[in-house]
Design brief:
Radius of gyration: 16 Å
Oligomer: single chain
Strand content: 15-25%
Largest sheet: 7 strands, parallel
Number of helices: 7
Shape: globular
Helix content: 25-40%
Bound molecules: NADP nicotinamide-adenine-dinucleotide phosphate
Number of strands: 9
C-alpha cells in the first residue's frame, strides 16, 4: 500500500507515520507538509509545500496512491468560525478534491474528533465545521472514505503535540489520563492505536464510515 500522509509533524501524524514505517504492508509514505519532519527512512519521502489551499504545483506528485491519512488539523481555541473553517474545511477539501481526482481507487481517512456534529447545525462551532468537512469528504468519489473520531489520544513512543496547550495537558494530566484509560478504555486511545487502525481500515475497510474511539481500539 502506498500512503500519502498529511500532518506528519503533528502528534497524531507522527504516530501514524511511525506505524506506517513499521508495517510491512505499507510500501511507501509520502508526507506532504510545510516543514521537514526530520526523519530519514527508506520508505519515506517528503514534499514541502507552502500553499495548503492550492495543490496544483505538486499535482503530478500526488497520483498513484492507495490511501491518504489526513492528520492535519488545528485547535479552534481562540479562533472565530471563518478562520477555523478556512484552516479546517478549506485545507482538507482542497487536498481531498485533488486526491480524489487523481486517485479514484484511494481510501481517504480523516481525523476529526469525538462530538463532531454531522447535522452541521449544533451549538459548538468546531463540531459544526468538522461535521461539514466530514459530510463533504464522504461525497467525494474515493473508493472509500472513513472519519476517525477519537476523544483523548495518549501520545506514545516519545511523540509530542505541536499544540502547546495540548502537550501541557498530556504532561500535567498524565496520571489522570492513565486512570481514565483504565476506567473508561473506550474514551481514550493512543497514537499507536490510531495508526494501526488507519492501516487496517485502509487495507480491509470497515462496516461504517464514522469510527469512534471504541471502533479504533477494537481494530
Ligand atoms: N491531540 C488529540 O488528543 C486529538 C484528539 C482528537 C482529535 N484530534 C484531531 O487530530 C488532528 C491532529 O491533531 P494533533 O494533536 O496531531 O495536532 P498537532 O500536533 O497540532 O499537529 C497539527 C498538524 O497539522 C499541521 N498543520 C496545521 N495547520 C496547518 C496549515 N495551515 N498548513 C499546513 N499544515 C498545517 C501541522 O503542521 P506544522 O508542524 O507545520 O505546524 C501538524 O503537522 C486535529 O484535527 C485534531 O482536532 C486530536
Amino acid at each position: 500500500m502506498k500512503v500519502i500522509l498529511f500532518g506528519a509533524t503533528g502528534m497524531v501524524g507522527q504516530g501514524v507515520l511511525r506505524e506506517c514505517l513499521l508495517d510491512a504492508g505499507v510500501e511507501s509514505v509520502l508526507a506532504v507538509g510545510r516543514r521537514p519532519g526530520g526523519q530519514q527512512h527508506a520508505k519515506l519521502r517528503e514534499i514541502l509545500h507552502d500553499d495548503f489551499f492550492d495543490f496544483a504545483a505538486i499535482e503530478s506528485q500526488l497520483a498513484g496512491y492507495d490511501a491518504c491519512f489526513f492528520c492535519l488539523g488545528v485547535s479552534s481555541l481562540g479562533m472565530d468560525e471563518a478562520r477555523y473553517r478556512r484552516l479546517t474545511y478549506d485545507i482538507t477539501m482542497a487536498a481531498a478534491t485533488m486526491l480524489a481526482k487523481l486517485n479514484p481507487q484511494m481510501v481517504f481517512i480523516y481525523v476529526t474528533g469525538q462530538g463532531t456534529d454531522s447535522t452541521e447545525r449544533g451549538r459548538l462551532m468546531w463540531a459544526r465545521v468538522k461535521g461539514k468537512t466530514e459530510n463533504d469528504l464522504l461525497k467525494l468519489p474515493f473508493k472509500a472514505a472513513y472519519m476517525f473520531r477519537p476523544a483523548g489520544i495518549k501520545p506514545l513512543h516519545g511523540i509530542r503535540s505541536m499544540t502547546a496547550w495540548v502537550q501541557t495537558i498530556y504532561v500535567v494530566a498524565a496520571p489522570l489520563l492513565s486512570l481514565l484509560n483504565r476506567v473508561a478504555p473506550n474514551y481514550m486511545t493512543t497514537t499507536e492505536q490510531v495508526g494501526r487502525a488507519m492501516i487496517r481500515v485502509a487495507q480491509d475497510g470497515y462496516p461504517k464510515p464514522i469510527l469512534e474511539s471504541e471502533d479504533i481500539n477494537r481494530l
